[in-house]
Specification:
Its main location: cytoplasm. By secondary structure, the protein is α+β, with helices and mostly antiparallel strands. Strand 23 and strand 24 (about 635-640) form a beta hairpin.
């Protein structure tokens, strides 16, 4: 199928078309599209051979109408756009800073090397609050205090009160801050862009002027020439071997001959890695000297200084290194040697431990005795303690003298925490020539928390002494000590055999409590070796004696100890209450208490001791321990009106002469109550109040009792 093209502007008639001989594609174009799985028709598609279809093309007039179409005719006037939110200046310009590079010239008077010095600074302008800060970059080893030159604030521009604005700053112009003129030579890129955005152009960048003194020093360094010595230098080896090792000598410079001179101490430091010497002064507090301790910087110290004058001013040329023949070495420094340091004579009087070990290893020195250079200070006289005024204790009087406000004597809080309420007890006898004091026994208590002692006397019957507290806790001074500064008895004065003089009474310690031995074993450092051995020997001897007595006296278990106390009604009437004591039959009991018996067992056996017994001697009465009774059946508090009798147990055992049947035998070792009351009524004093004797006599006249049953092992044989 041939394709004919129509000429624009002519009707579609024969003769007005022509055939295109170059057309080769006669395929029909697709009129549908496939999108997301759906077939949709094309709005604009081409005809055969990709030729546009004239019916679907827009005319020039339609295109012009579409271009000139006004949407407001259809949709109305558009709404005005909302204005942008207001952003304050301190938020919009936050952290935005303008930076300018500037310099100022500082005049240097009275110097032959330089007349002025060029100081470089950076000027920072903060846009958020129109403040300016001037900072000088720090240069290492410059010797000039650098850093912040002007703090951040608004700098006044004139006397009217106006301040500098960023429009007043520009490159190649001068600004004056507080009388000092700064020349701005450059600005950073962001500052240049900011000025361009504001419609301003900065001037061209200027070149910083050079500092004549800095250039002079730089040129001098450039002219230096170095040469390699012919002999191999061992500086690297010395650095590796002695790196960081310094010999320290203590020396003194005596300048007391001049006016206001003194004896000044120094430290001479010898660096082994490069054989250089440094001298540093040791200044004392409040000496009044300038705080510059360095007297000689690190340099090599020559021995001979070519006869230079020792006083200023020195008018001579500087001596070069090649003119110096010999330098100080470690072998030249010794204790007692005098070192000439550039005309000043220093005496070495001591050295540190590392230096001594270095000289001992390398030079074999052994004598390192230091030299005493300190002048003898007058010794301040000791005023001593004032005499005791007699008010309170000597410690109390001393505390009142040491302080304006009276204070109580101080106590050792550490001893309170360590020892607490620990008390050591010793037994003692009074050493006296008076007959009535011989044999008096005492207990001496030593309180560790405050070293105070108390004395208690043991009560002895018919001795004439009441016993009880002899001396309350107090500090006891030793005999012969000063009254104003007394020396008190302490822990090391208490041992077996020691003699204590307590306010004129002499006591000899003859025994100690077991607590003393336990305390010595726990705290051996609190006692001397003599006291430890003394106490241990005493307890060893005591334990040996106890073992011997136990072997000589075999233990007899004896009878059972009943649960029910004897004579409950009897002791209640006497005001004693219930007396109960569980004591082993073999234990020593010099003052036995009433022994309990099993009355139900007595009734089952049917023993009766209510018969008259022959009288006993005084020695036998010492062993009498209990009053026996037999309660009425059914009522333990009521007693039968029979004759009273007292038994004679010997350490809770029935006596050997006890007959098999005490009911039938009339020779039982019992006595009537009248004899017993006459001879041993005093034995009830330790159990009764003062008016118990009268109650006891009344009760004895109104009641008679029976004896208890004998022990189980002494029961009569069955007939």
């Amino acid at each position: 199928m041939e394709q004919c093209k129509r000429i624009d502007g002519l009707p579609f008639l024969p003769g007005n078309t022509f055939r295109d001989p170059c057309a080769t594609d006669f395929r029909r174009s697709q009129t549908f599209n496939q999108k997301n799985g759906f077939v949709l028709p094309k709005i604009d598609y081409l005809g055969v051979g990709e030729v546009p279809i004239p019916a679907k093309t827009m005319s020039v007039k339609d295109l012009f109408d579409m271009y000139n179409y006004d949407p407001s005719l259809t949709y109305g006037e558009p709404r005005p756009r909302a204005p942008p939110p207001l952003v304050p200046a301190f938020v919009a310009l936050e952290k935005k800073t303008l930076k300018f590079n500037a310099y100022y010239k500082e005049s240097i008077p009275d110097s032959q090397d330089e007349n002025y010095r060029v100081r470089l600074v950076d000027i920072y302008y903060f846009l958020e609050d129109d403040t300016i800060m001037v900072n000088e970059p720090r240069i290492e080893n410059s010797g000039i205090p650098q850093g912040k030159f002007l703090r951040r604030h608004r700098i006044p521009k004139n006397d009217i009160g106006e301040t500098y604005h960023w429009k007043d700053l520009n490159v190649a112009c001068e600004v004056m801050f507080y009388g000092r003129v700064f020349r701005i030579v450059d600005a950073d890129n962001w500052t240049k862009q900011f000025y361009e955005s504001e419609g301003l152009l900065l001037n061209d960048t200027e070149i910083l002027p050079k500092d004549p003194f800095i250039d002079k020093r730089f040129n001098a360094m450039q002219k230096r020439t170095f040469h390699t010595p012919d002999v191999l230098c061992d500086s690297r080896k010395k650095y590796m071997e002695y790196g960081g090792k310094v010999l320290r000598f203590h020396c003194v410079w005596d300048e007391r001959e001049v006016l206001y001179g003194s004896l000044r101490k120094f430290d001479l430091l010898y660096h082994l890695q490069d054989d250089m010497v440094e001298v540093v002064e040791l200044q004392e507090p409040n000496c009044g000297r300038d705080p510059f301790r360095l007297l000689l910087h690190k340099t090599r110290l020559p021995k001979n200084w070519k006869d230079l004058p020792l006083s200023f001013p020195i008018i001579s040329m500087e001596v070069t290194r090649h003119e110096i023949v010999e330098y100080y070495e470690p072998k030249d420094f010794k204790i007692g040697e005098t070192i000439n340091i550039f005309g000043r004579r220093f005496l070495i009087f001591d050295m540190d431990a590392f230096t001594r070990q270095f000289y001992r290893d390398h030079f074999g020195f052994t004598d390192f005795t230091p030299i005493c250079i300190d002048p003898k200070q007058p010794r301040r006289p000791d005023p001593g303690n004032p005499p005791w005024n007699g008010w309170g204790s000597p410690e109390d009087s001393l505390m009142n003298c040491l302080s304006i406000v009276p204070q109580r004597p101080r106590f050792d809080q550490k001893k309170t925490l360590v020892f607490g309420l620990t008390v050591l007890k010793f037994a003692a006898v009074m050493d006296s020539t008076r007959p009535e004091d011989i044999g008096r026994e005492f207990i001496i208590s030593f309180r560790l928390v405050d070293d105070k002692m108390a004395v208690y006397e043991k009560p002895v019957r018919n001795s004439g002494w009441p016993g009880g507290k002899f001396l309350d806790y107090t500090l006891i001074p030793k005999a012969g000590s000063s009254k104003d500064n007394p020396e008190y008895y302490g822990l090391n004065d208490l041992y077996i055999g020691s003699m204590l003089d307590i306010f004129g009474h002499r006591f000899c310690l003859n025994a100690a409590d077991r607590m003393v031995l336990d305390f010595i074993n726990t705290n051996p450092s609190c006692f001397s070796e003599h006291i430890r051995n003394n106490i241990k020997e005493y307890f060893d001897c005591k334990d040996a004696q106890d073992d011997t007595q136990k072997k000589e006296k075999p233990c007899d278990p004896g009878s059972e100890v009943c649960e029910k106390p004897i004579g409950e009604g009897f002791f209640e009437i006497l005001g004693l209450g219930v007396k109960r004591r569980d004591v082993h039959p073999c234990a020593d009991n010099p003052n036995p208490e009433p022994m309990p018996y099993d009355w139900d067992r007595c009734r089952s056996l049917g023993y009766n001791c209510g018969v008259q017994r022959p009288e006993l001697t005084d020695d036998d009465l010492e062993c009498i321990d209990q009053v026996c009774e037999k309660p009425c059946p059914g009522n333990p508090d009521m007693f039968e009106t029979k004759e009273l009798a007292v038994c004679q147990p010997e350490r809770y055992l029935a006596p050997e002469p006890l007959t098999p049947n005490p009911v039938e035998d009339d020779n039982s070792p019992c006595i009537p109550y009248e004899k017993y009351h006459q001879k041993k009524a005093v034995r009830f004093d330790c159990y009764n109040p003062p008016d118990a004797d009268r109650q006891y006599e009344t009760f004895m006249k109104q009641a008679k009792f029976n004896c208890p049953c004998p022990p189980k092992d002494l029961e009569p044989p069955s007939t």
